[in-house]
Amino acid sequence: MSDSKIFGIIALKGGVGKTTIASNIGTSLSKDFQKKVLIIDANFSTPHLGLHLGIVNPKYTLHHVLNDNHSIFEAIYQHELGFHVIPGKLSPFKIDPTILRERLEPLRNIYDVIIIDSSPSLNEEMYATMAASDELLVVSSPDYPTLSSTIHAISVAGQKGANIRGIVINRAYKKKFELSKKDIESASGTKILAIIPHDVKVLSALSKMTPVVAHSPKQDVSVKIKDLAGSLVGVKKKRRASFFGKKKDKDQDIVDEA
Known about the structure:
This protein is an alpha/beta fold. It has helices at 18-31, 49-52, 62-66, 99-104, 124-132, 144-159, 181-188, 200-207, 212-215, 220-232, and strands at 5-10, 37-42, 77-78, 84-86, 113-118, 135-140, 164-172, 192-197, 235-241, 247-255.
């Protein structure tokens, strides 16, 4: 039986950086942890993953696969950073929520990790990601309106029998007016996996259609995303100190036994 893991990245509120998290986790798992990674755009109505990764006008997309027009292997693109991508197509599309999981099953024998970037709408599109994923990551920001949507998404996922890995807080400003980690975990009943800081370097990377973990790998935002990626596969990045107490540039992978 394959040890491949499928992670669905969901959010019920647009603009929280769901696609940014999906593309950067996938990039880090491939580049920093040498995993065979496939990132899929399952936002069928408004797909943007391709634009995040420099795939502007793909010939074949997930839409072609789900319409039974083409094999799923025809829609897989090799990214220069080492991972693979199945982009989406900007067009109206209706889906049976169970079909996506069926199409992905043969890929478990090829990839270590499959990342699904979901739709931000609570409909068949998000249900397709829930049904296809082994675990879900819910992306939120530390404010009341977004937390309300996040709690609702967690509730619906639970009703659907989905396994929620935890919450990723994105675009945190580290200000007192933001909700605390304790408050969010208490209100949602769900563990926070990572708090990713707001950083204009993310927008700079996006302008170049490349993930920030590759564009600015030493930036704090990138380090936090790398730590999150490693935690998903049970590996931590341990930064080795020199004799003078300064951190070396080189990192050492260690397995997290916890």
